[in-house]
């Protein structure tokens, strides 16, 4: 059955032509490669002037990796010069902002978005806008920073609805994010780092492969359904929880969640098919009384 796995020669030819044209477009900066409406990652950069910590000072260098061998390009400013460099698949590309550019509210484009596989540390860009809808092969997006003094309060929204290959996301200390972050269309998501942000929840794919889940104390909804691969679950606080739904999932600190939540705001609790231990009978009674009072 090997011939069936390989497919027909005609399909291989189509694949070769498509990728060859894409490579040539990237080299000569033409065709679909430079279509900024359909094939770019758009970011609007900022450079706060009040940051004194050297580790988190603004740095407008953009770092990323590509899915295939190609010429990667970045343009700082709508009318700026497209800076293009050759890169092999998986190699880190670093492109610096040209001297003389004002980094505040600077629209910046990464071209060839459909071949970008990883966005490395973008936290020092302090972006207030990041559009990843064209990055269909994106597997990693480091947007936030876990440094205790880092804060990005200008990024108000982020969507991963078109990033079906996404595995790792970091939005730590992005305090401008207050909504629910939807990963339900990212079936391969495995690592979510969101501590220090102000998000109200994360929506995960059912029966997913999440391994690490780190959440802020602003979470109002914890919904985990058939999450069998979790190795690390951490939440900075449970005071804001209004809804708890945990079904057929493993390695979840049920006791800590139920003891830490505020019964005055908790409205709904559903726990099914979960194995968990309590420290003592008194602890169990405390949890039961709290649930009764909800």
Explain what you see.
By secondary structure, the protein is of the alpha/beta class. It is built from four helices and 18 strands. It has helices spanning 2-6, 9-28, 254-260, 281-293, and strands at 40-45, 62-66, 70-76, 82-87, 93-95, 106-111, 116-119, 129-131, 140-142, 168-170, 180-182, 191-193, 201-203, 212-215, 221-225, 232-235, 243-247, 268-272. The strands form four sheets. Strands 5-2-7-9-10-12-14-16 form an eight-stranded mixed sheet, with no helix packed on it. A hairpin with a 5-residue loop joins strand 3 and strand 4 (82-87). The longest helix is centred in the first third of the chain and has 20 residues, at 9-28. It is flat and about 70 Å long. The relative contact order is 0.09.
Give a short summary of the structure.
The chain is of the alpha/beta class and 294 residues long. The protein contains four helices and 18 strands.
